[in-house]
Amino acid sequence: MSGVHVGFKNYVSEMEDYTSSLANILEYLVPQEYVQIMRESMLNRCPVSSYEQVCEVFKKELGRTPDEVFDEFEPIPIASASLAQVHTARTRDGQKVAVKVQHTHMTDTAAADHATVQLIVNTLHWIFPSFDYRWLVEEMQESLPKELDFLVEAKNSEKCVDNFRKLSPHIADYVYAPMVYWNLSTSKLLTMEFIDGAQVNDVKTIQRLGIRPNEVARLVSEAFADMMFKHGFVHCDPHAANLLVRPMPSGERSFLGKRKPQLVLLDHGLYKELDFHTRANYAALWKGLIFSDANAIKENSVKLGAGEDLYALFAGILTMRPWNRVIDTSVDHLVVKGDEGDRSELQMYASQYFPQITELLRRLPRVILLMLKTNDCLRAVNNSLLQGSSLETFMIIGKVASEAVAEAKMSQRRSFLCWINVWLQEILLEARLFGMQIALWLLQVRKALTW
After folding, report:
1. pLDDT of 74-112, one tens digit each?
2. Ramachandran region of residue 292, left (φ > 0), alpha (ψ -120 to 50) or beta?
3. Cross-strand pairs, 88
4. Residues assigned a catalytic role
């Protein structure tokens, strides 16, 4: 089980302010110099609170020191980030927990961060007029107070799990969030169940646990597709440190005897809700992308704010593919190798169309920008698990998006004719997906024969 605790070394991921998030989103899309400057400016900070400061927070929040609250409390944190740090502890009844403690004077620090970002963004816009991310400051001003309240994070985690139970019961057992100890949690302290698990990009440990990485990739894709297209309540920070994998506690195994994975979601501070129309349009857009439907791509991109002039660019940013590949009818048209050739090609396009990219990001609803960030994180997870993107994960996204589109139509028009129409579309969808599955199998056979 060596390496199994690695996920908890990052149990609290850095509260990425929107500048660092933007750097993550646009790593392929903007000139490397911009990304490098933004990372160096905003990411080289990782404060650590002393044990005395931790005790100060405990006394203020619970009226007692950590040693008075817990049977055991490790004074040295196992992780520290810009917002908080995490300590391990053991409750009076012997349960091991992870305790997230907000850094003291964090509110003042957040205000200073906001002022710093405002200055940087305004200065960059003054020097480089095409670099206009002033909307970033407004978004931070709205989101930071929510991330500074750990009770909001705790409620998010419970709502996320509840959504899977109610809306996605077929995978509810396979998606988990650590249990919150409400009696030991406040807006600045969060006590959670401690869970052993492998970080989602730690392929060797996942394999040692008897789990197949491609099973994990499928689970991650389906879980987040359901959140985006069916739940409308999305964990927007799914980078590797926030996703743990462990064998199903029930001991369930696959047909081949491999252990089935359970996905454990950590750090629930950054969620976004998609209203009905945004969620339906976003699902219809992804359905169009998966099935190379140029008209659907254009129609739904325009509905989401990209405009008649930038819909092709929007499709390219979502898929990391040029327009001619987006509308290519070949079954693997969206699969990205992720090698240097792909990166160079994308960055060449990014340099060429940077003003248009800036304009597109200004137009899009803020919630869609967070979906871009989420997609970027999920793409990185997929690359780690599969050494590139996978046709199978795109098929999962296509299936979930198509189901969401059908459900949206049924909810708006409940007539018998509408039901028949949706039913026929579902039959055609299943036939199309079956054809894609056959094509996937043939591609795998051809690949195996060429080795």
Report:
1. 999 988 877 889 999 999 999 999 999 998 876 555 666
2. left
3. 98
4. 237
Contact (Cβ atoms closer than 8 angstroms) between residue 179 and residue 226: no
Fill in the amino acid letter for 279.
Answer: R
Which residues have CB under 8 Å from 93's CB, separation 6+? Answer: none
The per-residue pLDDT for range 402-433, each reduced to its tens digit, is 989 988 887 766 666 666 766 677 777 777 77
d(CA 64, CA 255): 52
For residue 374, the SS3 value is helix
Residue 257 φ/ψ region, left for φ over 0, alpha for ψ in the -120 to 50 degree band, beta for the rest:
left
* Direct distance between the N- and C-terminal alpha carbons of the chain, in angstroms, rounded to an integer: 33
Q: How many CB atoms lie within 10 A of CB 273?
A: 12
Instruction: Look at residues 285, 314, 249, 239 and name the one whose alpha carbon lies nearest to residue 7.
Output: 239
Half-sphere exposure (Cβ direction) of 325: Cα atoms closer than 13 Å: 16
196: nearest Cα among 188, 206, 181: 206
User: What are all long-range contacts of 418-426, with beta carbons under 8 Å and residues at least 24 apart?
Assistant: 426/402
Name the residue ranges covered by the structural domains of the chain.
6-196
